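Open question from group meeting: does this chain pack into something compact, or does most of it stay loose? Before anyone orders reagents, we agreed to write out a predicted structure and look at it together. Recording both the input and the output here so the notebook holds the full record.
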Amino acid sequence: MSSTKLQAVIREIDTVRCVGQWHIIPDLSSRYSKTVTESNEAFSSILLTEKLLEEELLNIKWNPKEHWISDGKTNATGQVSAPAIPPILQQSTETKKIQNQLDYISRKKMTPEELEVKIVL
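Structure tokens returned:
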């Protein structure tokens, strides 16, 4: 397919990722797969795994006010405090699945088209 169609799909993927519409990613991943001319298993896998990760992160319950409470304050030694560390994901079945997918993806190569547009997770 044409470079124009590929660029349009990539722009749409970027927009959907930026606004957090993760439910649309599987369809766009499929459209991307149909648009590129070479094997694109790695990039499609990255998109789908990113979707799972973002949805899992959205389920974390944390208090933003507590997170930022010490940001920018100076402690007794004169050091400026950074925000508190948010809750760590518990090792759930879903996070193990995501980790396994990321391990699998890390061994794959991206196509020249994917590298050219420099789409990164």
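Observations to bring back to the group:
The chain has six helices and no strands.
The radius of gyration is 19 Å.
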